[in-house]
Each structure stands twice: as C-alpha cells, then as structure tokens.
Design a protein that fits this description.
By secondary structure, this protein is mainly alpha-helical. It is built from ten helices and no strands. The chain has helices at residues 11-15, 18-45, 50-63, 66-80, 87-113, 116-124, 129-142, 146-159, 171-182, 185-204. Helix 2 (18-45) packs across helix 8 (146-159) and helix 8 runs antiparallel to helix 10.
C-alpha cells in the first residue's frame, strides 16, 4: 500500500537538492549558448576544414547519450590522462557539450532562415561579413530561437538528474538515497517527479 504520509517529513531533504539542480542546469545552459553561437556561425559560413571538424563534433554530441559523456569524463579521464575533475564540473561540462551541439543547430537554422536578400542588402551598403552578421542577421534570427531554446532548457533541466550517477547531491540523487533508506521508492520517486514538474512547468507556459 502506498503511504505518501510516511515521507512527508523527508520532503525538505529532497528540496535541499534544488539549488544544485538549478546550478547545474544554468551553468550548462549558459556555457552551451556561449559555445553554440560561434559553432553555428562557423557551420553557416561553410569554412573548409573548420566547418567539417565542427560538424563532426556536433554530430558526436548530438548522437551519443550525455550519460556516457559524464561517466567517461569522471571515470576514464583520471585513468587515461591523469586529469581529475570534481563531479559538478564533470556534469556541467558534459551537459554543456550536449547543449552546445543542440543549440548550435537551433542557431544555425535561425541564421539560415533569414532571407538571402538581407545578406545582399548589407553587402550593398558596404558592411563586412561580421558586421552583416552582427547588425543585420543575428537580430532577426534571435527572435526565431526563443521557443526552441526554452524547450532545450527544459530538456537540460531534466537531464541534470543524470548527475545522480556520480553522487552529486541534487534532487534525483537525494531521492535515490532516501528510497534506499526508507524502502519506499514509489512514494519518493513520485515526489521527485513532482519537484521536477514544478521546476519545469513555468518554462513551458
């Protein structure tokens, strides 16, 4: 029989993981955006070699699971190259790479959606490629980015739960530990799911 009343006293313990969950999400999201824009520009410009290398990296991070990146960076780097990173850095970095790959495609699609005539108009009045991109193309493309960028943020917030596998004490990790202690995994994980719902719900309105 389900007894949610048995875990009411443990809810504050779960809520203590929210700041860390949000910190992982925001760091990964901001870092992802910072990386994504130059990646999108490089791919849109179709610079030989550079564009191909960037595309390979983007496709790698888009087609492989973030969990693999987290586990590999946390456990393999110390063995292979003697680099040891703290758990927060590993999770935020791995999710930032995945976010950058996804966001770069969003930015690239928005840039390519701007009519070619806008590029030509900028060239006619003597603007350089960088000036056209900064003053003409990006202001028009950014308005197309808002909705998919919000979806990417929601996805990233949920993916932050992967930090639990390397014992980062965010919401999901606390839920696992609590469920192992009180033997009520359904009640605990249902409460964890509800916490994630209230965290992500404002972003999808």
């Amino acid at each position: 029989m389900l007894r949610f009343d048995a875990i009411v006293g443990d809810i504050p313990y779960l809520l203590l993981g929210i700041p860390l969950t949000l910190a992982i999400t925001l760091v990964a999201y901001v870092a992802g955006i910072v990386l994504a824009l130059p990646i999108a520009v490089a791919r849109s410009a179709a610079v030989p070699v550079v564009s191909q290398v960037v595309q390979t990296l983007v496709e790698f991070f888009r087609t492989t699971p973030p969990l693999m990146h987290i586990v590999w960076a946390y456990y393999a780097l110390p063995v292979l190259v003697d680099i040891r990173l703290d758990a927060f850095t590993v999770v935020a970095g791995a999710l930032a790479c995945s976010s950058a790959a996804q966001m770069s495609e969003i930015f690239r699609g928005a840039i390519l959606a701007v009519p070619r005539g806008q590029w030509d108009a900028g060239q006619v009045i003597g603007l350089s490629y960088g000036q056209r991109l900064r003053w003409v193309i990006l202001p028009q493309s950014l308005r197309l980015v808002y909705a998919p960028a919000c979806n990417a943020l929601v996805s990233l917030l949920k993916q932050s739960s992967l930090a639990a596998v390397i014992a980062v004490p965010e919401v999901m990790n606390r839920g696992w530990l609590l469920a192992a202690q009180n033997f009520r995994p359904i009640e605990v994980l249902s409460t964890v799911a509800l916490i994630y719902f209230f965290l992500t719900w404002p972003l999808v309105l």
